[in-house]
Design brief:
Arp2/3 complex 21 kDa subunit ARPC3; mainly alpha; 172 residues; 0% strand
Length: 172
């Protein structure tokens, strides 16, 4: 008698791969939640260690994984402090962070890890500060930029160091 469920080996492997991807994202989203609680003092209170897991995921496991983790990490951080710039603005920032994670992955693959760290830090710390311009003008941008740049550098460097330490291991 034949098996009523015809599942090929390829289908099983694809399913296992999907489960693995979801598990990886869940673990790193949880790490982002923990990082969201570790704040870097700033005028808005949304600068934290939430994006390091997303940046790490982007270069270690894939762009989609990193983009999802970093976007949700930002939403967790801003949610903890009550979405000080409003939910629509924080959703836009989450999308922006996802794009920054994708760029971080792309630059790492094309040029190298150090240029990727520099570019991601500048994107998040300087370009990201200009996202606040509509809410408070140039004063808000300049007031937020040093804190955001510091947080960006710390998050990206942590992600890069963790990646460097684990690259080539069976973990990634």
């Amino acid at each position: 008698m034949s098996n009523p469920v015809n599942v090929t080996k390829t289908e099983v492997q694809k399913g296992a791969s999907s489960v693995r991807r979801l598990a990886i994202m869940a673990i790193f989203i949880a790490l982002s939640a923990v990082g969201a609680m570790v704040k870097i003092p700033s005028p808005l209170g949304t600068v934290a260690f939430d994006s390091a897991p997303g940046y790490f995921c982007a270069i270690a496991f894939g762009g989609l994984e990193g983009a999802v983790v970093i976007a949700l990490g930002h939403l967790l951080t801003s949610g903890v402090v009550g979405f000080p710039m409003g939910i629509p603005m924080h959703l836009a920032i989450a999308v922006e962070m996802a794009v920054f994670a994708l760029i971080f992955r792309w630059v790492n693959r094309k040029i190298g890890l150090i240029p990727a760290v520099i570019i991601a830090s500048v994107l998040n710390g300087v370009v990201g500060a200009f996202t606040a311009y509509p809410l408070g003008g140039m004063g808000t941008v300049i007031g937020l930029m040093p804190f955001l740049l510091l947080g960006s550098v710390l998050n990206v460097v942590i992600a890069a160091l963790a990646y460097k330490a684990l690259k080539g291991s069976r973990l990634i």
